[in-house]
Amino acid sequence: MKPPIIISEVGNCHEGNINAALEMLEKSKECGADLVKFQAGLAENFARKHEDIPRYKKYELGLDGYNRILARGREIGIPVFFSVWSDVFKDYWNLEWTKIPARQCNYNVIGRYANEKTFISIPHLMPDHEVFSLGITHGIIMHCVEKYPAHNPFLNRMLRLKEMFCMDTGYSDHTIGIDSCIKAVEFGAYAIEKHFTLAHDFGPLRDHIHAATPEEFKTFVEKVRG
Predict the structure, then answer these.
(1) How far is CA 15 from CA 67, 93, 180, 203, in A?
(2) For position 159, which CATH number holds?
(3) Total Cβ atoms within 10 A of residue 177
(4) What is the Cα–Cα distance from 132 to 9, expressed in whole angstroms?
(5) What pLDDT is recorded for position 218?
(6) For residues 181 and 33, what is the distance between their CA atoms, to the nearest angstrom?
(7) How many helices (H) and strands (E) does the chain have?
(8) What is the rounded distance in angstroms from the CA atom of residue 69 to the CA atom of residue 74?
C-alpha cells in the first residue's frame, strides 16, 4: 500500500508568533511531513461570533508573515499552503496545494476553487444528499470530525465518502494522540492531516491538546512509512 500524503496542520498553533510559526514549519519538515498548512485570514472572517474577534486578532500574522513562511518553505524544500479566510489573501488560492476547510465546504467555494490538489474537508455529520449536492469532481476528499478534541474518528465515514465519489479520500484528525491517524492509514487513507504543536501546553488555543508534538509526529511518520 502506498504511504499517505502527510500534512502538518500548524493552523494557528503558532499563537500569532512568527518565530514560532517558522520553527513549527522547520520541525514539520524534520519530522517527515510532506506538506505544511496554515490559516490565512483576518479575525473578523475567521471568528464565528463577533465577540470572538479580539481573541482571534492575536493569531493574525499578516501578509508579510505568511509570505515569510512561504519563502522559508521554499528554502527548506517543503510546500506550504493555507486555508484562506479573507480576500486579502486570495492569491494563496493559486498555490500548488490548497485547502477548503469544513466551515467553507459549500457548492460555491468548491466550484470556484477546487482542483486536483485541493483538500476538501467534509463534516462527518453532513448528510449524504448534502455531500452529493456539493458537486465535487476534483480534489482530495478529507473526512473531518468537527469536534476539538474528537473522541471517535468515525473512519467508516471515510470509506463511505470514497465509495460515494470513487475519488482519493483522506482523514483530517482532531483526536488526541496518533492512534486514529495510524488506523486511518490502515483503512486506506490517501492523505492524513494532523495538527502540529511544539508542546501541548504551548498556549491557550484548544488545538494544542489534540495536536502532535514533534516527537509524536515523527513517531507517526515512522510507523506509517516503516
Answers:
(1) 17, 23, 25, 7
(2) 3.20.20.70
(3) 13
(4) 27
(5) 98
(6) 13
(7) 10, 8
(8) 9
Average pLDDT along the chain: 95
Mind giving me the DSSP string for 181-224?
Answer: HHHHHHTT-SEEEEEB-S-TTSSS-THHHHSBPHHHHHHHHHHH
Element holding 192 (H helix, E strand): strand 191-195
Nearest residue to 144 (alpha-carbon basis) of 189, 109, 84, 108: 189
Q: What is the mean pLDDT of residues 51-79?
A: 95
Residue 49: per-residue pLDDT: 87
Q: How long a stretch of residues is the chain?
A: 226
Spatial distance between the Cα atoms of 178 and 175, rounded to a whole number of angstroms: 8
Tens digits of per-residue pLDDT, 204-224? Answer: 999 999 999 999 999 999 999
Which residue range(s) make up the domain with 106? 5-225
